[in-house]
């Protein structure tokens, strides 16, 4: 297997100022198991586990073990889904105006 160096360029541009307040929500899930069970013999074989299922409640040591294949969560492919969420109220003056008119 050939190693490859990946370099990401950071943006030097300042963030765009906006009156809209928004934030990013990141959802992390763990997909198929990538553990090579034949590494000690010089081969390559995965167990076919399609998705990480926690063995116990979150916050315990057992929560890091997959109930389907028994592997640690680190062996499963990490999938990060990002979503930009914008607030409905973008300016405090607009909020005060809306509250004042509804009284």
Automatic annotation (TrEMBL):
InterPro entries xref list: ZF_HD_homeobox_Cys/His_dimer
GO biological process, one term: regulation of developmental process
Entry keywords, A to Z: Cytoplasm, Metal-binding, Zinc, Zinc-finger
Example of a GO cellular component annotation carried by this entry: cytoplasm
Keyword Zinc carried by entry: yes
Domain ZF-HD dimerization-type span(s) in chain numbering: 30-79
Location within or outside the cell: Cytoplasm
GO molecular function, a single term: DNA-binding transcription factor activity
Residues spanning the signal sequence: none
Pfam family name, one: ZF-HD_dimer
Record-given protein name: ZF-HD dimerization-type domain-containing protein
Chief location of this protein within or outside the cell: cytoplasm
């Amino acid at each position: 297997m050939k190693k490859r160096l990946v370099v990401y360029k950071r943006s030097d541009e300042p963030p765009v100022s906006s009156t809209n307040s928004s934030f990013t929500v990141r959802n992390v899930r763990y997909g198929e198991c990538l553990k090579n069970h034949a590494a000690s013999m010089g081969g390559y074989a995965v167990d076919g586990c399609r998705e990480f299922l926690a063995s116990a409640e979150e916050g315990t040591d057992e929560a890091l073990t997959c109930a389907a294949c028994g592997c640690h969560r680190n062996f499963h492919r990490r999938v990060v889904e990002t979503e930009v969420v914008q607030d409905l109220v973008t300016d405090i003056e607009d909020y005060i105006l809306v509250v004042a008119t509804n009284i």
